[in-house]
Amino acid sequence: MTYLGESAALLTSLCWSLNSVCFTVAGRRVGSASVNLLRLLMAWGLLVLLHLALYGQAFPMQAGAARLGWLGASGLIGFALGDAVLFEAFVLIGARLAMLLMTLSPIFSALLAWLFLGQSMGPAKVLAMAVTLGGIAWVVWGGGDQEAHPHLWRGVLLGVGGALGQSVGLVFSMKGLAGGFPPISANLIRVTAGLGALLLYFSATGRLRGTLGGLRDGRATAFIGLGAATGPVLGVVLSLVAIAKAPMGVAATLMSLSPVILLPVSHFVFREKLGGHAILGTLLALAGAAALFFV
After folding, report:
1. Is residue 94 within 8 Å of residue 24, measured between CB atoms?
2. The EamA domain covers which part of the protein (predicted)?
3. Which residue blocks in the chain are alpha helix, DSSP H?
4. The pTM is what?
């Protein structure tokens, strides 16, 4: 099929956009902690069924201790910690601005790859990073978001934390995927580790019953279920197809379009004020993030 990878990448962006809106709505009803735990619980069940259908076993027991360690750490950092702060950012500053801050993830990934993996980072990459940071700063300081988000700076810091968690998790995932390990199996290990860590934390702090109590809110549960299906499951599968069937730079660029897709959603659904600075700053940040994959 012509443009299969590009189509999958664009659908991935749509999934990320829908996923973020679902978790924003649910988080404002039952809290970000409930959203994080419940969506991992639902995603884990879906991934177990998918893994069973594809590989004939519910869990990749043949992964080996070292691989389990890398992927488990990736899931702990990415899903349990990074997403926890990201979902709180959704609640505080909305899906659009939180997802825009996630465009920092390529910058963090490039820096981590430079520091720990020995990958080069020339002047062109540094310039692309500066463009991305400039676009984000333009949106944040532009004056249109402060009125709508009274906890703007706390939300911004949490969004930055989410981007950093995703990047660190990605570096650990690269180690775990070495040798051609199936990405769906790797994702199941990551989700299992993240879910296990959250269950232990909420059990130890006596908050497990209250956190699971979010299931009593039918509307929030429906949004969490839809977000779990379109995020950790469908979105991940589509992203793997995109990377396999399209050039990396093209796929990565198309998969980073969520902030643009969310501009009209934020305006018409969440009633956010969107000035020219928000639109132009978003496009500038995305241009810088895209350039990282081509220079």
Report:
1. yes
2. 5-140, 154-293
3. 4-30, 32-55, 65-75, 83-101, 105-116, 123-141, 152-177, 183-204, 208-212, 218-228, 234-245, 248-255, 258-268, 276-291
4. 0.85
Residue numbers in the chain where pLDDT is lower than 50: 144-147
120 CB contacts (<8 Å, ≥6 apart)? Answer: 114
3-state secondary structure string, 242-288?
HHHHCCHHHHHHHHCCHHHHHHHHHHHCCCCCCCHHHHHHHHHHHHH
pLDDT at 192: 97
Specify the pLDDT at position 249: 65
Q: Phi/psi zone of residue 264: left (φ > 0), alpha (ψ -120 to 50 degrees), beta?
A: alpha
* Domain edges within the chain: 4-291
pLDDT at 142: 64
Contact yes or no for 173/166 (Cβ under 8 A): no
Is the CB of residue 185 less than 8 Å from the CB of residue 56? no
